[in-house]
Amino acid sequence: MAESVVTKEAPEGEATRRDFIHIAAGAAAAGAGVMMAWPLINSMNPAADTLALSTVEFDTAKVAEGMQIVITWQGKPVFLRNRSAAELQKVLADNNASDLKDPQTDAERTKPGHEAMLVVLASCTHLGCIPTFGTGDYGGWFCPCHGSHYDASGRIRKGPAPTNLVVPEYEFTAGSTIRIG
């Protein structure tokens, strides 16, 4: 004899176990999707250390003539160099040099009235290495990694770097105080 299976249908308008399983599975899938998307969305926010340093102020009176300091702005090193009179004289004499890869005068790289203070990002424009001061052929920076030579105005003179050291947006706010950014 064959047995018959009796299924019991839910009255119209009432949820069954199957309906509950479908709703629970859908909710679990939606939760898993949110959990997977959250790290991606969160990674698009700016880092807390760069957000806090969108501008930085520094008193340049602390930098003696002929000296250089390195400060951090937006997580990047910045050279602040108080150039000596001899450095300025040499840089101004080389303003019209025909061997400049990226022609730019010293006046285009400094602020009027503050010509001795040079502000440049401390990153070689070739591959981002940090150049050292005073070891190059032109009295400026030298990148020992790949051989780029910069003058005391941060202009590329020799080597593989395609452009001058970058001058960030900056201004003198009060006397000798400088605001970068």
CATH architectural designation of the largest domain: 3-layer Sandwich
Radius of gyration: 31 Å
Structural class: alpha+beta
Helix content: 10-25%
Strand order of the largest sheet: 5-6-7-8
What is the mean pLDDT?
84
Number of domains: 2
Task: Fill in the CATH topology of the largest domain.
Answer: Rieske Iron-sulfur Protein
Tertiary shape: elongated
Low-pLDDT runs: none
What does this structure look like?
- This protein is of the alpha+beta class.
- The chain folds into two domains: 13-45; 50-180, Rieske [2Fe-2S] iron-sulphur domain (Rieske Iron-sulfur Protein, 3-layer Sandwich).
- Helix content is 23%, strand content 25%.
- The chain is built from three helices and ten strands, in the order ααβββαβββββββ.
- The protein has helices at 17-43, 48-52, 85-93; strands spanning 56-59, 68-73, 76-82, 117-121, 132-133, 139-143, 148-151, 156-158, 170-174, 177-180.
- A four-stranded antiparallel sheet has the order 5-6-7-8, with no helix packed on it. A three-stranded antiparallel sheet has the order 1-10-9, with no helix packed on it. Strands 2-3-4 form a three-stranded antiparallel sheet, with no helix packed on it.
- The longest helix has 27 residues, at 17-43.
